[in-house]
Automatic annotation (TrEMBL):
GO terms for biological process: toxin catabolic process. InterPro entries: Glutathione-S-Trfase_C-like, Glutathione-S-Trfase_C_sf, Glutathione_S-Trfase, Glutathione_S-Trfase_N, GST_N_Theta, GSTT1/2/3, Thioredoxin-like_sf. Pfam families: GST_C_2, GST_N. The keyword Transferase applies. Residues 226-250 are annotated as: Disordered. This is glutathione transferase. CDD domains: GST_N_Theta (cd03050). The lineage of its organism: Eukaryota, Viridiplantae, Streptophyta, Embryophyta, Tracheophyta. PROSITE patterns: GST_CTER, GST_NTER. It catalyses: RX + glutathione = an S-substituted glutathione + a halide anion + H(+). PANTHER family: GLUTATHIONE S-TRANSFERASE T1-RELATED. It comes from the Eukaryota.
Amino acid sequence: MKLKVYADRMSQPSRAVIIFCKVNGIDYEEIKVHISKGQHLTPEFAEINPMKQLPAIADGRFKLFESHAILIYLACAFPGVADHWYPADVFKRSKIHSVLDWHHSNLRRGAAPYVFNTTIAPILGRPLNPQAAAEAEIILSSSLSKLESFWLKGNGRFLLGGNQPSIADLSLVCELMQLEVLDEKDRTRLLGPHKKVQQWIENTRNATNPHFDEVHRVIMLAKERQQHQRLKAAKNEGGSNMKKPLVSRM
C-alpha cells in the first residue's frame, strides 16, 4: 500500500516530511488536514494520531507520529534514500539525534510561539500575547546564537560540519522558514546578526530544490497576505490621524 502522509503545509514539521519524501522519490499520498479548520481534532484523525498533532503517517497498518521519528523511519524503511540523510555510522547518527533533541527543547520552543503570538494567532481566532512573544524571543535568540556558534562551526555547509544535508538540517530549516511571515524588519532583526545561519538556510534550500520552494509556497503566500494586511492597517491608521482641514465660516 502507498504511504499516507497526513499534513498541513502551514505546519513546519509537516513540510519537512513532505520535502523529504519528494527529494528521495518516496511514493506517497498527501492527505491534507487543515489545522485552521480544526480537522486535526476530529475523532477520525485521532485514530491516526491520538495526540491530534501533525504530521502523521500510515504505512500499511503501521502508524507513526512526531516528525523526527517519521523522518528516521522513512530514511530506514525506504530503499534508495542517500546515506547522508541518516548515516549508518553510529557516531554520525548519534550526533544527528543530539541535534534533533536540541531542536525540540530549544529552537522550536522559541520560533513557534514567537511567530504564533506576534502574527498567526488572530488567523486562528486567538489574541496576540506580547508577554508570551517576549519570552519566546529570548529562547529563539539564544537558539540562533547556538546554531551560529556551535552547530554550524567549522567549514561544512551543513550542521555538524557536513557537506550534505541530514534530516536534522531539513527539520531545523523548515522550523526557521516560518519566520518569513514576520514583518521584514522583525525578521531582519532576528536573523540579521547570524550570517552562518542565513547561508545554511540557503544551502539547504538549494540542496532540496525544486521541492523546497514548491512546498514552502504556502508560506510565501501567507507572507504576501500579511504584508498586504500590514500596509492596509498602516494606511488606515495614517488616514485616521490626519487632521481635518479648517474651513472658513465666511
